[in-house]
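re the bet — no i am not wrong, look at it urself. input seq straight from the record:
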Amino acid sequence: MKQKLRALFSPILNLFESGTEPFTYKPSHRVILIAMGSIFSGLATLVFFIAQGEDPGYLLPVLVFGGIGLMSLLVGLIGTDRAVAKIWGSR
């Protein structure tokens, strides 16, 4: 299943997994990335349901927080160690 998801999201994952420079990876970085992705996705969902029917400007934070949350979850759950290190800027 993980390989199918990696193939589906390969255009996005390739941005973070490319490169040959050395990197420093810590397992705690992946855990924190997944936690932050969950928080951002939850925040986007909360804003969507609370502000629904109000001014359409509420969609901007939903898109921003939702995009950040989904990207973090995607890289945290199915990305390689290099992708996680690249998110953190570890060299």
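see?? Residues 19 and 66 are 27 Å apart (CA to CA). told u. also The first helix runs from residue 2 to 8. so pay up
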